[in-house]
Automatic annotation (TrEMBL):
UniProt cross-references to PANTHER family, sorted A to Z: HYPOXANTHINE PHOSPHORIBOSYLTRANSFERASE, HYPOXANTHINE-GUANINE PHOSPHORIBOSYLTRANSFERASE
Obligatory cofactor(s): Mg(2+)
Recorded coiled-coil stretches: none
Species of the source: Bacillus taeanensis
Keyword Cytoplasm: yes
E.C. number: 2.4.2.8
Name of encoding gene: hpt
Source lineage: Bacteria, Bacillati, Bacillota, Bacilli, Bacillales
Subcellular location: Cytoplasm
Protein name: Hypoxanthine phosphoribosyltransferase
Length: 175
């Protein structure tokens, strides 16, 4: 991989507009009830921060870290829990906040893991969705953008820990 960004897929403005819309959708669905956003580290940190700042209901935040990629561009299929929640989610409205849903293997694992903890509600919010690559059926409640099967970086999403700081989503040249 040359490490060069071929082109922008989503601009900073497009992302910020959609994040605000997602925050409004969540507010409507939870009708003033408190919500716990569970950001999946490290990729979702920028998205979950912006989402939280756009919400007008009471929002708590916690994080989980899982790995199925390492420094590769494809999922290994083996999910490893690196950091668990600090919060008890029993009887809470919980939204898993992901940067991207690709194969769905990681999110399938997380969803089962969190459902076993008896939340009041468990929803999924992702900035990006690559349905072409799905290996398991994942019901997505809030989706920012459906994108093609391209390797992307930016807005928290990395390649070997680089490019997270970009305010837009770029397609990486893989030639």
């Amino acid at each position: 991989m040359s490490g060069l960004i071929e082109k922008a897929l989503l601009t900073e403005e497009q992302i910020q507009t959609r994040v605000k819309e997602l925050a409004e959708e969540i507010e409507r669905d939870f009708n003033g009830e408190d919500v716990l956003l569970v950001g999946i580290l490290k990729g979702a940190v920028v998205f979950v921060s912006d989402l939280m700042r756009n919400m007008k209901i009471n929002v708590s935040i916690d994080f989980m870290a899982v790995s199925s990629y390492g420094n590769s561009t494809t999922s290994s299929g083996v999910v490893k829990l690196i950091k668990d929640l600090d919060t008890d989610i029993k009887n809470k409205n919980v939204i898993i906040v992901e940067d991207i849903i690709d194969s769905g293997l990681t999110l399938n694992y997380l969803q089962k893991n969190l459902r076993d903890r008896s939340p009041k509600a468990l929803k999924i919010c992702t900035l990006l969705d690559k349905p072409e690559r799905r290996k398991c059926d994942i019901p997505v409640d809030y989706c920012g953008f459906e994108i093609p099967d391209k390797f992307i970086v930016g807005y928290g999403i990395d390649y070997a820990e680089k490019y997270r700081q970009l305010p837009y989503i770029g397609i990486v040249e893989t030639k």
